[in-house]
Amino acid sequence: MKIVRIMFLILFSMILFAGCRDTPSSYSFAFDEEEIVAISIVQMKGYVDEEHDETEYDIVYTVKNIEQFLIEFSKIEFSRILFGDPYRVQSDELAIRVSYKNGLAEYIGFIGQEWWESEGKEGWRFGWYYCDETEFKQFLEKYIASQQ
User: Residue 101 and residue 74: Cα distance in Å, rounded?
Assistant: First the structure.
């Protein structure tokens, strides 16, 4: 009887957790792609003031052909974080900075995203997506190497 219970719990757990996986897909931007005015690859440096849009970064590369960049970027598969808190882009990390027509910017890293949505303390929004770190960094390095 004990073995039957254990087997049942194992089977139940496998069924339960099988539905917890997310199907990888291309990245979902904070705003419509038609609203994008500029894309840069940046080296994040830190956060001066989290109550205002004062993220420190150095521009490493400015994307010249946004449409082509978006096509290639859409090939990277992102999965959704299903449990826990979302991550922000880490300091000292290469990231993608997307500027929108409305004046706001989104920062995309392999393990997290963030964007400034409105004035005041509640302006920061964090994404729930992650991708393969090696694939993400190789994608960025390809663009950085093309300018040299």
Answer: 21
Maximal CA-CA distance, the chain: 69
Quote the radius of gyration of the chain (alpha carbons, Å).
19
pTM for the predicted model, two decimal places: 0.75
CA distances from 132 to 14, 75, 79, 96, 138 (A): 25, 12, 9, 15, 10
Q: pLDDT tens digits, residue range 17-44?
A: 544 545 667 888 888 899 999 999 999 8
Report the distance separating Cα 41 and Cα 96, nearest Å: 5
Question: Does residue 40 contact residue 97 with C-beta atoms inside 8 Å?
Answer: yes
Q: Which residues contact 126 (CB under 8 A, 6 or more apart)?
A: 85, 86, 87, 88, 112, 113, 114
Matching residue, tokens 């496998």? 14
Cβ burial of 112 (10 Å; 0-12, 13-18, 19+) is buried
69, β-bridge pairs: none
Token duo for residue 45? 């440096």
